[in-house]
Amino acid sequence: MIKTEKVLHLKSSRGRKVRVVREHYLRERVPCFSSLCQADCEKDGKVLPGDLTHYVVPDAEVVVNYLEVLEFPELQGIVITQTACQALHSKGRRFYNRLRNLLKDPRHDCVLFANEFQEYSYCPREKGESQEKWQTRCVYAAAVWYYNHLAGLMNVVMITEDEEAVSRFSSLNSGVFVIRVQDYLQDFWPELKAAHELYSAITQVLQEKEGEDSQREFSEHLPAEVLEAGIKSGRFIQGTLNVSKHRPQNEAFITNQGLSTKNPGAEAPLRSSLVLAEPAPPPENPWEFWTHPSSRCFSASDLSSGVLVFGSKSRNRAVHGDMVVVELLPKSEWRGKVTALTERQVDEKSGDESETKAMPTGRVVGILQRNWRDYVVTFPPRDGTQSQSRNSQRILVIPWDRRIPKIRISTQQADALQDHRLVVRIDSWPSTSLYPNGHSVRVLGRARELETEVQTILMENCIHVPPFSEAQLREMPVNSPENPWTVDPAEAAERRDLRETHLVFSIDPRGCEDVDDTLSVRSLAGGKLLELGVHIADVTHFVSEGSLTDLEARSRATTYYLADRRHDMLPAVLSADLCSLLGGVDRYAMSVLWELDAQSLAVTKVWFGRTLIRSSYQLHYELAQALLNGKEAEVPELARLDPEERDTKLTELMEALEKLTHIARHLRAQRDRGGALELEGVEVRAQLDEEKNITALVPRQPLEVHETVAECMIYANHWVARKIQEVFPYQALLRRHPPPRQELFSQLVDTAQARGFAMDTRTNKALADSLDRAVDPQDPLVNRLLRMMATQAMSQAVYFSTGAQPEDQFYHYGLALDRYTHFTSPIRRYADMVVHRLLTAALQVEQGAEPAKTPAGNKDVEELAEHINNKNRAAQRAQNLSIGLFQCLFFKERDPEIDPRCVADGIIYAIRDNGVLVFIPEEANICLVCRRFLVASLLYGVKGPVYMRNKEGRVVSAGPDGTCEWQSGSVRRYTDHIITTSGSGSATFRLSGQNSGAITYLLSHPQVRISVLSTNCHADTLNLEVISNKPHRSAAPQLPSSQGRQLVQEVVRLAEEAQEKAVQRPKLPREEREFQQSKAPNLYSILEEIRELALMDLETASRVCATTA
């Protein structure tokens, strides 16, 4: 080891330059991480393969500017030097973390070489040498060392953008080649067009950045040291910028990352204990900015609703999702939220809209962390007003997400890609530009096409679900007719065998194949005890921690369910086969068994462990409920038995279901006494066919057996949470549901009060009791809507590490449990896989053995929890957007003026200045389904605005029969109703009771017409327009159930015939082959066939179907 010195030139907190001299140690043995190494270097972690033609060593400048190109998995054998890594770190933590993730990902052949600690590759900086030249020299020295260290067995290519370096170093060593990035791509990867296009786009952005003008459009951000000091002193506030979906040009809010405490009345203040209300004028020296005193201050509890940032200037180049620092404006400049519905883009200076009470308002003074991602954009439509050339000049593209500002990119294909959606990345946003600068990454496809729109939804939610790779599939066990999977005798000996002792069965939705939970119940000790068992698929037996499949599952974090497809977290051989607890086959499971007193149902003993089970019955919900109700029902597993044996086994099954229901009722009553909430959600389930394709999303019909299964799963999750938290008190993955903020219940309280119901929201128990009492016998939708509004007011349940929260924060508000986690669905949730591993380790610790692998620490578990939380939120958003897409597709081809299915009943649940918010329940659904694509339940749970005054200033006027039309007039809003006045009189729309004239009341039922608003750059949206203030019943003919099924069967048959013909169609493009998991015919042809058949009377439809048969 050789000791030397390293000189650093840093800047102090006061802005002074400081020269720092540090000891620097050089070593002869530094790992090279190559499989060709002849010097026996350590090879912990990834190792570069030896079957490549060359290794690639990128220059520091290439890593800093072209990291996206290096991320292509086709580029293999990449050696990132320590010099380049440190250069990237100076660019920002976001880029540095991106490189770290790339180096840790085993799917990419790249390693980190500590060249500055290697004795023979270290290059001290020469006097007068620029940092860029020194970095290039260091990287070249590392490339030469690599070639010599591997004894010339592997050529090394150094890629750089420095022409001088190419001419200087290219001929010094025969085995080390120095070329430009562009030449490298052209010579070695000519077919990798995406990399070529990305390189060109980045290069053009870098060239244009050098020529930017100096006219300032925004104020400069304060230095990081000033921001940190201002936050600590209370002058500044730190939080996440959330741009309003309804007024993205004007309104944005600063919200805190923290969550509420267990006390329902407690608030979650922003990151500031004392906030200064009247900021003094900024001093000339920004380093002294935070030291100026303030004349007035107030506590952070006044900021419980967040801080408003009004206008793009105050936003100061911050983008939705950025972690920002804001300074409050004087109270005289505070504003409130606009209370009117937004129908158009409004100017920042417009003051004709009423606002709520003034709230704290501020301006962004700095950005702590950029959270830029990939954005889907579209070119603006061609018109004569554009001041930009559309050939090789910079174009302002319009993001699909309205909350993102326009992005300036450079392209020569603006005309060719006019109607396409592109993926772009933001590179920078200097203070001299009104818009951020970016570059295009790839083309998604033509706008308005189904596959493009689905990929847009996935991309906008950062969901990446490529097909499982061959390497991942090679890790999977084999189960085929030629080589069937069987239980390993050695593994069976380590497990508790329940195949002959327990009656195990599953209860799932009809057609479900990913059965990850089963149940059992039996009597013990002569009937004095009951044993309840919950058995969960043992996924972690097949998926080793750290394997490629595990890393992919961790990256996805969940299975993604869309309207027409699903993207599994695990390969199908696990999710639909070996980890699915199907009936009549042996399966590995993780089980929880409770011994309960038969009278009191108190727990006397609990057992956790790995088991071997064989499910006897695979029931669906409707069948299980029929058996519980004593109805005649055919159990498929008993169909071939003789009558006597069938009756015996059926009686045994029914007794087990009755015991299970009895226990579940007791468990539910226990939680109800603790304040558990029964909330209403717009819940639909995927209906699958024999090939696991989604045929429809249908509303879940409430059955007691649903609650029975749910209670057993909740009970298992609760007890597993207790176990892993007791053994690992500071590193267990649990799930908490924070109490909601009280101000979020204001709309619920006002709506309930309009019908005469009082809502007590102080505790979960009080809220549950209030919802139970809020029942209108004349209108059952009232209670359901109130429960849905209560659900919307709730904060989201989140995963967390027990070492990151005090124990009183573990509470689950909705379930009324002190500890909770997810254990019961490891096939579709990665969190459950983590919990399975923790439970296994906990059992090993209790037995006095060392865990096979030490559980992750608190910091790692908390990072994983945050990742899973983000992915779960993305999955929920993508599912909602997907359903909205198909809703729009269904109504887009219909004429709303004449099609009776475009008219439905709504229920008003909120009043605004210029309109109302309306919910359309599932009773208004169109009851048609077709194979693999959603047509049924398209209208399930639609909510949206209904305008009483449009942008032309005209208002809704109702005639004597309730029919509405647009006339000139005015609108006046009250607490529970809204009145429109026109030349023909006034009308009221109420929140409760019946509407009269043009007065609208809360919880009343107007008729609405449904149409589609289409834009080329954004997603289509449903438009709701009131046509009558009196209730409506659909005029569409109601098909008898048998005839309706015949119509569905004909549509399915036609779809199958079209699919057979599709075999002869041209080969699908790569995007469809890789990402479209459904193999259905074209959606539009199916919808067109459905539309034509549905508009015919039954006799005509039957003749048409008979003709085509």
UniProtKB/TrEMBL annotation:
Give a yes or no for keyword Cytoplasm in this entry: yes
Origin superkingdom = Eukaryota
- Quote the CDD domains the UniProt record gives: PIN_Rrp44-like
Cross-referenced InterPro entries: Dis3_CSD2 (IPR041505), NA-bd_OB-fold (IPR012340), RNase_II/R (IPR001900), RNase_II/R_CS (IPR022966), RNR_Ribonuclease (IPR050180), Rrp44_CSD1 (IPR033771)
What keywords were assigned to this record?
Answer: Cytoplasm, Exonuclease, Exosome, Hydrolase, Magnesium, Nuclease, RNA-binding
Domain annotation RNB: ranges: 495-845
**Catalytic activity reported:** Exonucleolytic cleavage in the 3'- to 5'-direction to yield nucleoside 5'-phosphates
EC no. given is 3.1.13.1
Q: Where in the cell is it found?
A: Cytoplasm
Which stretches are annotated as coiled coil? none
Cofactor(s) essential for the protein? Mg(2+)
In which family does this protein belong, per the annotation? Answer: Belongs to the RNR ribonuclease family.
Recorded hits in PANTHER family, A to Z, give: DIS3-LIKE EXONUCLEASE 1, RIBONUCLEASE
The identity of this protein, by name, is DIS3-like exonuclease 1
As recorded in Swiss-Prot or TrEMBL, the protein's gene is named DIS3L
